[in-house]
Design brief:
Chain A: Pfam families: PP-binding. Chain A: InterPro entries: ACP-like_sf, PP-bd_ACP. Chain A: This is Phosphopantetheine attachment site. With about 80 residues, chain A is an all-alpha fold. Chain A has a single domain, classed as Non-ribosomal Peptide Synthetase Peptidyl Carrier Protein, Chain A (Orthogonal Bundle). Chain A contains three helices and no strands. In chain A, helix 1 packs across helix 2. The longest helix of chain A is centred in the middle third of the chain and has 15 residues. Chain A is globular, with a radius of gyration of 11 Å. Chain B folds into two domains: about 260 residues, Bira Bifunctional Protein, Domain 2 (BirA Bifunctional Protein, domain 2, 2-Layer Sandwich), CATH 3.30.930; about 30 residues, no CATH class. In chain B, the strands form three sheets. Chain B has a seven-stranded mixed beta sheet with strand order 3-7-8-12-11-10-9. In chain B, helix 2 packs across helix 10. In chain B, about 35% of the residues are buried. The chains are: A mainly alpha (about 80), B alpha+beta (about 325).
Chain lengths: ~80, ~325
């Protein structure tokens, strides 16, 4: 799943740096993720994984790192990858 | 001191509609038939003028450049600003008749028949200004890189937000006075800090109770929920709240740190070429005036001497 998230970050140019330079725990906001971009990214993740983030997850923390996104998505689709 | 004078109804009592009716019957506001669109009395206007003078006194040493734009701004400017991403529900676009004589005859016929004549209207290049500072950023960007130390502006405009309500503190057309600081992150944060101290001091000098609280803008939809959460998490918006006519106190001043949002969007550069940061303090002029009428009574001549001295002294 993390690879799919990485692919999406690269395709959508979500951050200002090369996604390969990011670790799973790197702070995406520090890497250039803006508020508006994080919304586009959220919608793209919903499309990609066929999920809908509930309101409680619509926070900065949910999208702060690849690991954090992975955790939230796993929780939503009910499977650990 | 307890700012509630004896003439003040307790905050939260009576409700917004009752306060609005009091303002109408006292002649402070005049009904027009559209919620949120009111005439203002001479006293009401004078209170706003005096309050603005007080604000200028507090800001005096800062030497802001004053620049006033009309309450309409170029449509492309609003489109680029991102306002429609965040607040599509509040925006107002000016439409006009652009047809020929045959269309005019149809228009009159539709009017006479009580039909919806607005079908014959087309969008103009003008939108109503949603916040006094929106036309400023592209203006500053055009001037080229900023001088060392950044810039400070003093703005005021009638603003439009489409949110009809019988809460007098939620008007569709209202005035916003703003100071906008553009510069380095440190400069703009220091500016906001200074107003977070001055704001409550200024409001308390008018015998009004207030508190500062973390806030968020009313962003639209699910994406907006996320923007609002981001804004709160990062402490980007604070409001000065005064009990006016609702159970919840009303935001009368706001203190906003935009980070480099407008700097990047419009290409405003610091002296070293990096995107500028910006912050603003906004005064809801009608809201402050309403707070004064709510707490000190409908007749300004009867307001406490201490308050009159600050405003008229």
């Amino acid at each position: 799943m993390r690879d799919r998230i990485r692919k999406l970050i690269a395709e959508r140019k979500v951050v200002a740096v090369d996604v390969d330079t990011l670790s799973d725990t790197s702070d995406l906001y520090e890497a250039g993720l803006s508020s508006f971009a994080s919304i586009q990214f959220m919608l793209a993740l919903e499309d990609e994984f066929d999920i809908e983030f509930p309101e409680r997850m619509l926070t900065r923390k949910t999208f702060a790192s690849i690991e954090a996104i992975d955790r939230s998505i796993a929780e939503l689709i009910g499977e650990q990858v | 001191m307890d700012a509630l004078s004896q003439t003040a109804p307790a905050p939260g009592q009576g409700g917004a509609k009752e306060f609005l009716d009091q303002l109408f019957s006292a002649g402070v506001l005049t009904e027009t038939g559209v919620d949120g669109l009111y005439g203002r009395s001479g006293d009401f206007e004078e209170v706003i003028e005096r309050f603005e003078t007080l604000v200028t006194r507090y800001a005096g040493a800062d030497k802001a450049e004053r620049i006033h734009f009309p309450p309409g701004m170029p449509r492309p400017m609003l489109e680029k600003s991102g306002y429609l991403k965040s607040f599509p529900q509040l925006a107002g676009c000016v439409h006009s008749f652009m047809g020929g004589e045959a269309d005019h005859a149809r228009l009159l016929q539709m009017l006479a028949n009580g039909e919806d004549w607005t079908d014959l209207q087309q969008a103009t290049d003008v939108v109503l200004t949603p916040a006094a500072c929106y036309p400023l950023y592209p203006t500053v960007a055009k001037r080229g890189p900023m001088p060392d130390g950044g810039v400070l502006f003093d703005l005021k405009s009638y603003c439009f937000r489409h949110e009809p309500s019988q809460d007098p503190a939620r008007m569709q057309l209202f005035r916003m006075r703003e100071y906008v600081r553009i510069g380095s992150p440190e400069e703009v944060r220091a500016f906001r800090e200074s107003w977070l101290e001055r704001g409550p001091e200024l409001i308390r000098s008018l015998g009004l109770p207030c508190e500062i609280d973390l806030a968020n803008d009313p962003f639209f939809g699910r994406a907006g929920k996320m923007l609002a959460n981001n804004q709160r998490d990062q402490g980007l918006k604070f409001e000065l709240l005064i009990p006016v006519a609702n159970e919840k106190p009303t935001a009368c001043l706001s203190f906003n740190y935009h980070q480099d949002h407008f700097g990047t969007l419009w290409g405003i550069q610091q002296a070293d070429g990096t995107p500028a940061h910006s912050a603003c303090v906004g005064f809801g002029l009608e809201r402050v005036a309403l707070a004064l009428f709510r707490h000190h009574g409908m007749k300004v001549a009867d307001w406490p001497q201490s308050v009159r001295a600050v405003l008229w002294g």
